[in-house]
Amino acid sequence: MPTGIAPLPGGLLSHGWDITAGGERFVARLAEPAARQPVEAGLVAAEHLRGRGIEAGRPVRTLAGGLTAETPGGAMAVLRRTPGRTLDGRDPVDQQFWGDRLGAVHRALQTFTHPGLRRGNPLDPDAPHLGAEPWLREAVAGAATAATRLTVTDRLTYGVLHGDPAPEVFLVDPATGRAGLLDCGAGGTGPLLYDVAAAVIYAGGPDTAAELLDGYLAAGPVDEDELHAALPVMLRLRWAVHADRAARRLAAGEGGEGDGEVLRRARAALAAAPEPR
Fold it and tell me: Start and end of every Aminoglycoside phosphotransferase domain (predicted)?
């Protein structure tokens, strides 16, 4: 029986818990039922990372040998927790670890393939729940259009995405100095700068993410010119994804006060986003 269960912060794509049982620590992730294949792709990707010297959570298989279990709430995965403390996204030294590991993960997964990986635009501007706020549909459509235009007119670096690279997903072991991550996410494939934009938002925005970006550029496959050219569009897209998911939860009666705050912050960020030239 577990002796301790604590919710993990973040969780745009899933809900997570830090669990202590039998003297060991585990991470449990619950994703929506439709995300089972992407979640399993992420678990296999973590194995790929470990084979390349990057610490990542090891999945605990079901009695039948599966990577995930079907539950009424969705697809559940349990992993043995990587040793170490989670990172503080506002600390400059931790930002360096964070950016370095995200870049290393992107580079290590350039040769990874799995049938569960999905590719495509995560937004549907015609979705009914986008009518919840008068500004929402137009803002989401504008962000999706700008991202599509960027992918057509610019040469971007594509690869396997984590999807939700919050600082709490990454760890550093004080005993060894090695940094790793709890799990590999279920982000599918797309422009790698989408992950970078997600991390920048968690860091508080571009003005407070300098060390994160320096660490990423030193370790990742994206060069500085691409980062500066495409990051504003990817930030706009990520904020639109936040708004879309918050509105979807509220429309389904599953949201809370936190989703209202997400919509407020997303509206302000999307209104301030520069229009691409």
Answer: 5-220
Per-residue pLDDT of 136-182, as tens digits, reads 999 999 999 999 999 988 889 999 999 889 999 999 999 888 889 99
Which residue type is seen at 38? P
52 with 71, same domain: the answer is yes
Within 10 A of 180 (CB to CB), how many other CB atoms are there?
24
Q: What is the pLDDT of residues 222-254, one digit of tens each?
A: 999 999 999 999 999 999 999 999 999 899 888
Pairing type for strands 85-86 and 55-56 reads unpaired
**Sign of the C-alpha dihedral computed for residues 115, 120, 126 and 129 taken in this order:** positive
DSSP helix/strand/coil, 47: helix
* 147 plus 31 within the same structural domain: no
Please indicate, yes or no, whether residues 204 and 90 belong to a single structural domain of this protein.
Answer: yes
Instruction: Give the 3-state secondary structure of residue 80.
Output: strand
Determine, yes or no, domain membership for 277: no
Question: Residue 103: which domain range?
Answer: 86-272
Please tell me the predicted confidence (pLDDT) of residue 276. Answer: 61
**Per-residue CA distances from 105 to 21, 52, 83, 185 (Å):** 29, 10, 17, 11
